[in-house]
Amino acid sequence: MRLPEPTLDGEESLETTIAARRSRRAFQDRAITCKQLGQVLWSAQGITDRRGHRAAPSAGATFPLEVYAVVGRVEGLEPGIYHYMLDSHSLELVRKGDLRARLTEAKLAQSFIAQAPVIIAVAAEYGRTAATYGSRTERYVHMEVGHVGQNIHLQCESLRLGTCAVGAFQDLGVKEVLGIDEEPLYLMPVGYAR
């Protein structure tokens, strides 16, 4: 499913958005739109120009990260797990159904995550970076996921949505629910904060 084109001229200044950024762990029982979801995904890994540059830097342009959306309540989108296809700014269905509760079971005592209408999952294929950087791979991949996480935080804030970065989860459980081979690094619930 093709997502609406991202907006490139937000209403708030970057400085205002940075000053307002907070981790938010309580969410309203309210759906978000496909436009909002697309904007958040674009801020994570979207293509920003014709030359193929992305929203977040990557060591040696090795691009080890993959981004998934665990959708429960998004207007016009069936619940399921979707892979963000950055080249076409679209979503590819990986698994059908609302799997937010199952994903929560793979975490460690953080049930608030299932309240969010969407959970963004960022995972890494370390081999893409290891081929170039060897022993420095882990450092560079973790720097990159930090850039992506901050972009998601700031984009959510500018859209008046809440999020937080969750790293406490059982890797194998998350991989099983998502149906992926990559290593999960972040889970970021996204929705209207309470």
Short description:
It contains 6 helices and 6 strands. It is an alpha+beta fold and 194 residues long.
Structure overview:
It is a single chain. This protein is 32% helix and 20% strand. It contains 6 helices and 6 strands. Strands 3-2-1-4-6-5 form a 6-stranded antiparallel β-sheet, sandwiched between helices. The longest helix has 22 residues, at 137-158. The protein is an alpha+beta fold and 194 residues long. It has helices at 14-20, 34-45, 100-105, 127-133, 137-158, 171-178, and strands at 65-71, 80-85, 90-96, 118-124, 162-163, 183-191. The protein has a single domain, classed as NADH Oxidase (3-Layer(aba) Sandwich).
What characteristics describe this protein?
194 residues; alpha+beta; 6 strands
